[in-house]
């Protein structure tokens, strides 16, 4: 009787070990569509963060954060503050548990090539390279707001389109930082 129980206990362990050894790259690495859905969820979180920071800044400045006299004028420190707060959200999420709010429901995590947590340097490089297309918004005075927005969109398509061709499904910022997105079982 005891021998039968031990044999039945070993069977699920052996089956689990066999299934783990037979995993393929498509089982481990995050497909592009899942990454983009997580990014869409994160967009909602970023909009909420920006709204809260904007509200707090309006309250602190007594409503003079944005002034108008024919054209809107925003305080010089406001946009860098927003960028800093949004960057802190991503960095803290990646360094704390490897997941942003958008990555959690899609069961993906950012890791290094060995599947371990990423370092602070990797997180910063990943953030800077992922946000680099935003610099194209500086072209707005030359090519207009619509042209600059399209330039950013095309750059991000190239950034994330790289994941469609990469064997480990890494976007350009993942390649630069030495990171990858993995599915969580």
Structure explained in plain terms:
- This protein has 185 residues and is mostly helical.
- Helix content is 63%, strand content 9%.
- The protein is built from seven helices and four strands; from the N terminus they run αααββαβαααβ.
- The protein has a two-stranded antiparallel ribbon.
- β1 and β2 form a beta hairpin.
- α3 packs across α4 and α4 crosses α5.
- The radius of gyration is 22 Å and the shape is globular.
- It starts with a helix and ends with a strand.
- The relative contact order is 0.13.
What are the salient characteristics of this protein?
185 residues, two-stranded antiparallel ribbon, 7 helices, 4 strands, 63% helix, 9% strand
Task: Tell me the overall shape.
Answer: globular
Q: What is the β-strand count? A: 4
Low-confidence stretches: 2-23
**Helix percentage:** 55-70%
Count of DSSP H/I helices:
7
Lateral arrangement of strands in the main beta sheet: 1-2
Outline the biggest β-sheet: 2 strands, antiparallel
Q: Kindly report how far apart the N and C termini lie.
A: 34 Å
Helix and strand pattern: HHHEEHEHHHE
Strand content: 5-15%
The Cα radius of gyration reads 22 Å
Average predicted confidence as pLDDT: 86
Structural class: mainly alpha
């Amino acid at each position: 009787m005891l021998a039968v129980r031990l044999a039945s206990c070993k069977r699920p362990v052996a089956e689990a070990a066999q299934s783990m050894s037979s995993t393929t790259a498509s089982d481990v690495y995050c497909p592009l569509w899942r990454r983009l859905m997580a990014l869409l969820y994160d967009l909602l979180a970023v909009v909420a963060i920006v709204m809260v920071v904007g509200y707090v800044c309006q309250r602190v400045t007594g409503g003079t954060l944005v002034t108008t006299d024919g054209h809107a004028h925003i305080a010089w420190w406001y946009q860098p503050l927003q960028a800093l707060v949004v960057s802190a959200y991503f960095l803290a999420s990646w360094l704390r548990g490897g997941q942003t709010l958008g990555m959690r429901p899609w069961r993906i995590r950012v890791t290094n090539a060995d599947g371990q947590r990423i370092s602070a340097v990797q997180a910063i490089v990943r953030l800077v390279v992922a946000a680099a297309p935003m610099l194209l918004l500086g072209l707005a005075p030359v090519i207009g707001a619509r042209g600059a927005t399209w330039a950013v969109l095309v750059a991000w398509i190239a950034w994330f389109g790289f994941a469609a061709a990469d064997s480990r499904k890494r976007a350009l910022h993942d390649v630069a930082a030495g990171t990858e997105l993995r599915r969580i079982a």
